[in-house]
Write a structure and sequence with these properties.
2 copies of one chain form a homodimer.
Chain A lengths: L2 H4 L3 E7 L3 E8 L4 E8 L6 H18 L7 E8 L3 E2 L4 E5 L4 E4 L1 H9 L3 E5 H12 L7 E7 L3 E7 L2 E2 L31 H4 L1 H13 L4 H7 L8 H9 L3 H25 L3 E4 L2 H5 L1 H15 L9 E4 L6 H14 L2
Parallel strand pairs in A: 1-4, 4-8, 9-12, 12-13
Antiparallel strand pairs in A: 1-2, 2-3, 5-6, 6-7, 9-10, 10-11
C-alpha cells in the first residue's frame, strides 16, 4: 500500500503576516481540511499574539476533528529577521515584536515538531510545491509589496544564506545616491519599484492633477493607493498610473535580468497583490526587460510566471516545508 | 584503519585553458604526486588537442609510477559552454573548438570515470576545498580576466543553473545602453570592470600621454597591458593607472553588493592574475563598495578574501570534484 494513503497525520501551515494570520490544516496529501483567517493584532503584545496563534491552531484541530496526536508538525511563515534553528522571531517591526520564541511555545503546547521559516520563503516554497513553479529545479520568486521580497527553491530545498535570510532582491543597489531605503541604504530596488514606491509616485501624480481617478477615490494619501485602486485607475483611464506601473515593472525586470544571469533559474514566479491585480502588465514589462538583458544563451532557459496560490501560498508552503523538514 | 590512508587510488585534475593546459596528479589525500604544464595550441585542431591531453595524462601516470587501474577518476575544467552530463565542450572560442566529446574520449582511453566541469567552477571548488574558502557553507568566487568569471559552491556542491552554466556576474547589466559586450548585450559589468576593459582604458590614457610608464613598456596595444605591467605601472607612479584600477574594482564591488544581498555567502573569493597582482587594492576598493551597499544586517556575515591557489586552483578543484562526484 502506498505510504501517502496510509499516513493519516495532519499538518498545519501558518502564515503570520503584519496585519493578517492565515492558518490551514492539511491531510498528508495536502488536501485542505480546515482553515481560519484572523487579524494579527501585533500591537496587543507578544503574549496575546502567541495565545491567538495557539487558539487558531486548536480551533483548526477541533474543526477537522483531528486529535492532537495526529498532528505531524506545524510550519510557520514569519516576517524576519528570524533565528531559524531556534525558531525565534528576532524582530518583526510590523507586529512590534522582538525575540519571540515561537517554536518553543508551540512545541510545548502541541507536542509536535514546529518549523519557523521566512514568510517569503514559505510562499515561494508553496508555489514550488503546489503552484506556478511546481517541480522546478531552481525556482526564483519575487513579490513586490511594501518592500520587494524574494526567495529561491534550489533542488527541492529553500536556498539559505549565512544568517538564514537571503534573496534580498529588493535591496540590490540600483540608483547611486538614490532615495533612502527602509534598510538604511540608498537607491535599493525597493526605493523605485516596490508597491509603496509606486504608490508614492501615483500620489504625486494625483496631487499634480494628472491622475483624476486616483484623486477622486483615494486622494493623495499613499496608504489609500492599494493594488486594487491602482488597477481600477488604469482601467478608468489614468494614463500616468499605467506609465508609472510599467516603468516600475521594467526596473524590476532590469534587476531580475542580473539575477537570472547569476542563478539561471528554470522558473521565475512573480506574485503578491499588485502583480496579481495586473498580471498582464507585469508579464509584459518584466518579460521584455529580462529578455533584453539576460545572456543570449539563457533566453530559452527560463519561464516567467504569475503566482497561482494567492494568499494561501504562505500557509501551504509552511505546512509542506514542515513535513519536508520533519521527514528529512 | 582510516579509509583515506588505505585508499591508494590517484586522481587527475586537468585545467584546459585558452592558452595553457595544467595537469596534476594527486594521491587520494590530494597530495601532489606529479604535474605538467603545456601550451593548449587549440588552433592545431581538436584531434591534436585531445591527443595532447591524453599524452599529458599518460605522462603524469608514468612519472608517478601509478598503474592505470589505480586511476580513480579524471576531472577536467573547461571553458564553456559545456554539456555537463555528456561531458562535451559545445564551444570554446579561445581554442576554436566545437562539439568536442571530451568525456567519452578520455573514458575510452583511460577506463575511469571522467567529469567535465566549467573552468571557473573548478577553480572556485578548488579554493573551497583547499584554499581561501575552505569549508565555507556558501563560497562565491569572482575572477576578473578577459571577462569576469563567477562561481558558487553551496553546501558542498557546485551551484548549477538550468543549462549548467550560471553565476555569470560579468554579465549583470550595469550601464544602460553601455558599450557592446562579448555576449552580444550592452553595458554588462565586463564592459567596464574586466581586465580587458581596464587595459583598454589604460591604453587610452597612455595614448593621451597620461601613463608614461605604460607608454614606454607596452605602448598603446592593450594586448601588451597585462596584470604584471599594470602592477609595475602603479609602482612606477602612473597615477591614472591606479585610478582606473580603483574605479574598476569599485564597479565590481557595486555588483558584488547586489550578489551578496541575493546569496548571503559566508566567503567571497577574488582571484585571477589581476587580483593576485594587486590584492591590497582589490580588497580595499571591493571591500568598501560592498560594505557601503549590502544590507546592514549582512555586514558581519561575509569575509572577503584573495584566492590562495593561483594557477593550480582549476586543476586541484577539477580533481577534487571528480573524486566527490565519483563517490557520490
Amino acid at each position: 500500500m502506498n505510504e501517502v494513503l496510509t499516513d493519516d497525520r495532519v499538518w498545519i501551515g501558518f502564515d503570520l503576516g503584519g496585519t493578517k494570520m492565515n492558518a490551514m490544516l492539511f491531510d498528508s496529501a495536502f488536501g485542505v481540511r480546515s482553515r481560519r483567517r484572523k487579524k494579527s493584532r501585533g500591537s496587543e503584545g507578544v503574549e496575546s499574539g502567541i495565545e491567538r496563534i495557539v487558539a487558531s491552531i486548536a480551533k483548526l484541530l477541533e474543526e477537522s476533528q483531528a486529535p492532537r496526536e495526529m498532528l505531524g508538525g506545524i510550519g510557520v511563515g514569519c516576517p524576519g529577521p528570524l533565528d531559524l534553528e531556534e525558531g525565534v522571531i528576532l524582530e518583526a517591526p510590523n507586529l512590534g515584536w522582538k525575540n519571540v520564541p515561537l517554536k518553543k511555545a508551540l512545541e510545548k503546547e502541541f507536542g509536535c515538531p514546529v518549523f519557523v521559516c521566512n514568510d517569503v520563503d514559505a510562499g515561494v516554497y508553496g508555489e514550488y510545491r503546489f503552484g506556478a513553479a511546481e517541480g522546478a529545479r531552481t525556482a526564483l520568486g519575487v513579490f513586490p509589496g511594501t518592500g520587494i521580497g524574494g526567495a529561491m527553491i534550489y533542488e527541492g530545498k529553500i536556498f539559505r544564506g549565512k544568517t538564514g535570510s537571503c534573496l534580498e532582491i529588493g535591496h540590490v543597489p540600483v540608483v547611486p545616491e538614490g532615495a533612502l531605503c527602509g534598510c538604511g541604504r540608498r537607491g535599493c530596488l525597493e526605493t523605485i519599484a516596490s508597491r509603496l514606491a509606486l504608490s508614492a509616485e501615483i500620489a504625486k501624480a494625483a496631487y499634480r492633477g494628472q491622475a483624476p481617478y486616483i484623486l477622486r477615490v483615494a486622494g493623495t494619501d499613499l496608504a489609500n493607493i492599494r493594488s486594487g485602486t491602482i488597477k481600477e485607475a488604469i482601467d478608468a483611464g489614468d494614463k500616468i498610473v499605467e506609465e508609472i506601473l510599467r516603468e516600475g515593472a521594467q526596473q524590476l525586470g532590469n534587476v531580475l535580468a542580473g539575477a537570472v544571469n547569476l542563478l539561471a533559474p528554470d522558473v521565475i514566479v512573480l506574485g503578491g497583490g499588485l502583480v496579481e491585480a495586473l498580471p498582464k502588465l507585469f508579464l509584459e514589462e518584466v518579460g521584455k526587460a529580462v529578455a533584453k538583458q539576460v545572456m543570449p544563451s539563457y533566453l530559452k532557459t527560463y519561464e516567467l510566471k504569475i503566482a497561482k496560490l494567492g494568499d494561501d501560498a504562505g500557509a501551504m508552503g509552511a505546512a509542506a516545508w514542515a513535513k519536508h523538514s520533519a521527514e528529512a
